[in-house]
Amino acid sequence: MRSTLRRTRRTGLAAAGLVPALLLTGCSTAWEGAAGEPAAAPVQDVLLQPLGAHGPDPFTDSTVRNTAAPAAPDRGPDEGPSPAHEVTGSTPGLYGGTRAVGSCDVERQAALLAADRTKARAFAEAAGIPEANVASWLRGLTPVALRADTRVTGHGYRDGRANAYQAVLQTGTSVLVDQYGAPRVRCACGNPLRSPSADPGGVHQGDPWDGFDPDRVIVVKPTASVVTSLVIVNTSDRTWIERRTGSDGDEDREPAVAPACDPDTCALTGSATPDPSGPGHPDSPAPVPPEPTTPDPARPDPTTPHPDVPDPSGTGGTGTDPTAPLPTAPDPDTEPAPDPYDEPLPDPFAEPSGPDGQQPPDELFPAGAVPDQPETFQG
């Protein structure tokens, strides 16, 4: 294990010249090739940030309160890499804290940013919020501490703007998480946090702490909907605490239904508490809307009788004998036979159409002589 970390350090020192350029690359910058196509994402090294370190290019002074840092869940010596590298933000035991005490001073954090408008503007841009909402947005976050080494996208403040970089935060780091359970601010430096890149492809920069294992680093997956509380581990007595999201710990209580595992041994397997319906996290893809339930007008409802189907009683609503045969419906694909009664009949009282003394047209009389036929037709 130690040999692996030494190789990581030596590789990191060799690539140290790349760090300034990488830190100046914002996460929202789009590179384009000659043909206008997006170029491949640049390789980004991952900065190791111990829990007590101020970090590069801090936005503010530290707002961490003197609380006990939570320990990582116990792991046996023979256990291999964790099967869950991505953990949902509402997973019980993902975070820790002290009962009735927040791990960060939220009001101090808001005051430090309000005192510098340029920093506040850069902070808002990196966090993805309006500049006017920085203070209210911070007050809606929840102060907790990490219980696992966590990879994030951090943002340092340099030359009046926020610069993105990939980082791993050590277990015990005080953070502010949003209503989707995702870390959004590192309290030791006031730097905004976002979801990490899928695969930075670089090496770890900095000295690893005791117990650091790249295979045990997790990524927090924001919940698909808003959560109203988080179930965290009490660092003082190793019990469970239910902390309402957006509170400073003053409303902490015991969970109505405690998790089925012990806080010391509860593995971060990614199982999350049920989430109520709500909007998605800004870093998550938009949910797919459900298909409409209205029936297709071109496809009739099978439960609705067809208008051409006879009455189920067999009477058609007339009260006639149901056993009587029904008339055969005409074939719509054939032309109907002419009605013999549609031909007009000659008027027997009408005058002959021929001249006087001449016989009317032949079509009114049969061919040939008729015995005893009068000269004129009598009605």
What's this, in brief?
By secondary structure, the protein is of the alpha/beta class. It is built from five helices and 13 strands. Helix content is 12%, strand content 17%.
Secondary-structure blueprint:
Layout: H1 2-14, H2 19-23, E1 44-49, E2 86-88, E3 95-97, H3 106-114, H4 117-127, H5 134-139, E4 142-146, E5 150-158, E6 161-169, E7 174-177, E8 183-186, E9 191-194, E10 201-205, E11 219-221, E12 229-234, E13 240-244
Parallel strand pairs: 1-6, 1-10, 2-11, 3-12
Antiparallel strand pairs: 3-4, 4-7, 5-6, 5-9, 7-8, 8-9, 12-13
Keywords:
379 residues, two-stranded parallel sheet, 11-stranded mixed sheet, globular, 5 helices, alpha/beta
Describe the structure.
12% of the residues lie in helices and 17% in strands. It has 379 residues and is of the alpha/beta class. The strands form two sheets. The protein has an eleven-stranded mixed beta sheet with strand order 10-1-6-5-9-8-7-4-3-12-13. The termini are far apart. Mean pLDDT is 75; it is low at 1-39, 274-278 and 302-320.
Q: Walk across the major sheet and give the strand order.
A: 10-1-6-5-9-8-7-4-3-12-13
Number of strands: 13
- Helical residue percent? 10-25%
How much of the polypeptide forms β-strand, as a percent range?
A: 15-25%
Low-confidence sequence ranges: 1-39, 274-278, 302-320
Main sheet: strands, sense, barrel: 11 strands, mixed
Based on CA atoms alone, the radius of gyration comes out at 42 Å
How would you state the average pLDDT, rounded? Answer: 75
For the record, give the distance between the C-alpha atoms at the N and C termini, rounded to a whole number. 127 Å
Which structural class best describes the helix and strand composition?
A: alpha/beta
Shape: globular
Number of H/I helices: 5
Order of helices and strands: HHEEEHHHEEEEEEEEEE
